[in-house]
Amino acid sequence: MKVNRINKPLINPYPIKMTLHVELAPDGSHTIGTDAAGNSVNMYLPEVAGGTATGIRPMQMLVLGVGGCTAVDVLMLLRKQRQQIEGLRIEMEAGRAPAVEPSLWEKLHLIYIFKGNIQPERAHKAIEMSIQKYCSASETLRRAGAALTWEARFE
């Protein structure tokens, strides 16, 4: 991780411009998305396009990206506060505009499920900071018109 002169993590250590690509799998059953470092993910390709109609759909990937983005923020903030996190699961309930193309996400509800010795008020603050300030993925959906809500549960 890159740090600034006083050894604090940079706000955004990732490049602003990224090179990514999506290609058809050799067997034609799905597409494969790959980043510049070679990390890849298999994605859904419908039967009408020659695929097997299995895997994560691209629009689902957008929602999963919000979950992954906010998880990073929340975990970093809570660990910095020395909260004892044993587990975190984020369930997401999302809804798209019906009977219209393109069908944009209209709402996303995130349910954070924490395990460990975590002070609820600190978790709530970390979630709020992530959703309102740090998570670029959630802000991208919000600017596209999606309503974002959340709740936290503790086990």
What is the gist of this entry?
The protein has 155 residues and is of the alpha+beta class.
Explain what this protein looks like in three dimensions.
The chain is of the alpha+beta class and 155 residues long. It has two domains: 1-56, no CATH class; 58-154, GMP Synthetase, Chain A, domain 3, CATH 3.30.300. It is 30% helix and 31% strand. It contains three helices and six strands, in the order βββαββααβ. It has a three-stranded antiparallel sheet, with no helix packed on it. β2 (31-35) and β3 form a beta hairpin. α1 (58-80) crosses α2. It is globular, with a radius of gyration of 18 Å. Residues 1-7 have low confidence and may be disordered.
Q: CATH superfamily name of the largest domain?
A: K homology (KH) domain
Contiguous runs where pLDDT drops below 50 for at least 5 residues: 1-7
N-to-C SSE string, H for helix and E for strand: EEEHEEHHE
Q: How many individual domains?
A: 2
CATH class of the largest domain: Alpha Beta
- The N- to C-terminal Cα distance equals 32 Å
Percent range for β-strand residues: 25-35%
Q: What name does CATH use for the topology of the largest domain?
A: GMP Synthetase, Chain A, domain 3
Helix fraction by DSSP (H/I, runs of at least 4): 25-40%
CA-atom Rg in angstroms: 18 Å
Mean pLDDT: 91
Tell me the strand order in the biggest sheet: 1-2-3
Architecture of the largest domain, according to CATH?
A: 2-Layer Sandwich
Number of helices: 3
Instruction: List how many beta strands DSSP finds.
Output: 6
Shape: globular
Helix and strand content put the structural class at alpha+beta
Largest sheet: 3 strands, antiparallel
